[in-house]
Design a protein that fits this description.
The protein has one domain: Rossmann fold. It is built from two helices and ten strands. The strands form two sheets. Strands 1-2-8-5-4 form a five-stranded mixed beta barrel. Strands 6-7 form a two-stranded antiparallel sheet. A hairpin with a 3-residue loop joins strand 6 and strand 7. Helix 1 packs across helix 2. It is globular.
């Protein structure tokens, strides 16, 4: 079975975005913001998983899927568990490290890539408030 990591994941169009970060860093907020922004722009967007995501290498690509026990559910602070449309899996094209305060103003080349399960992926560091930035990077 693929390992589970503490992360959120969304699919925008055909591109999966894996959102990592500490508890309270805004992973769920960013995931919900990305889905809302893409949907408002007429782009297909869905949650894949929130809080726990399985990741596995398959033919040189990183595939993410949500945990079946919490599929289609997100925890909204102050509200509780909310049901949301979801996709069961996607191919990750971008890793976003979500932090309460962005540490790298001008990242080095080595900070722009990360390897997960042996797959090299583009990486950015951002805060939950910067959903437009993440969408612009996807093109």
């Amino acid at each position: 079975m693929a390992p589970s990591i503490h992360a959120s994941c969304v699919v925008i169009g055909e591109r999966g975005i894996l959102i990592r970060g500490e508890s309270g860093s805004g992973k769920t907020t960013l995931a919900r913001h990305l889905v809302a922004l893409a949907t408002q722009s007429g782009i297909f967007a869905r949650l894949v998983g929130d809080d726990r995501v399985f990741v596995a290498e398959n033919s040189g690509r990183l595939v993410a899927s949500g945990h079946p026990a919490i599929a289609g559910m997100v925890e909204v602070r102050g509200v509780g568990i909310v049901d949301t449309p979801y996709e069961s899996a996607c191919i990750i094209r971008l890793v976003v490290d979500c932090s309460k305060q962005v540490r790298l103003r001008s990242p080095n080349e080595e900070d722009r890539l990360v390897t997960i399960q042996g797959v090299w992926l583009p990486r950015i560091e951002t805060s939950a408030a910067e959903g437009n930035l993440v969408l612009s990077i996807l093109g």
